[in-house]
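Handover notes (outgoing to incoming on-call)

Open items:
1. (apollo) hypothetical protein: sequence verified, structure written out, both below. Nothing else pending on this one.
2. Nothing else urgent.
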Amino acid sequence: MLPWDQQGKNGPKKPQPDHILVTEPKDEPVPSEPTSDAEEAKKSIVKRLNSRGDTEEEERSGSQTDDELKPETSQPQFTLKEKLQLEIFKSMKSPDPEVQVQN
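(apollo) hypothetical protein structure tokens:
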């Protein structure tokens, strides 16, 4: 127990400050709204993926049999969403130079 508060109910007798500073919160963009840079990056990645898909289909559309048209098992097949996530992940750089993104 403290010597000035034997029952432990009064609390410390500290002087209160003469003034209190209240700061207003910053106006920050809502995280759910993508920035224009992110939108442009997404669009360019989608264009690249779509153009890759067109060239792959043209290469496959030659005189190949059904067996030759089957995807290779060595490379996993990704959905468009997975491809976008992979491209974004690869294009990201760590702000800390000691931390490196490993493929």
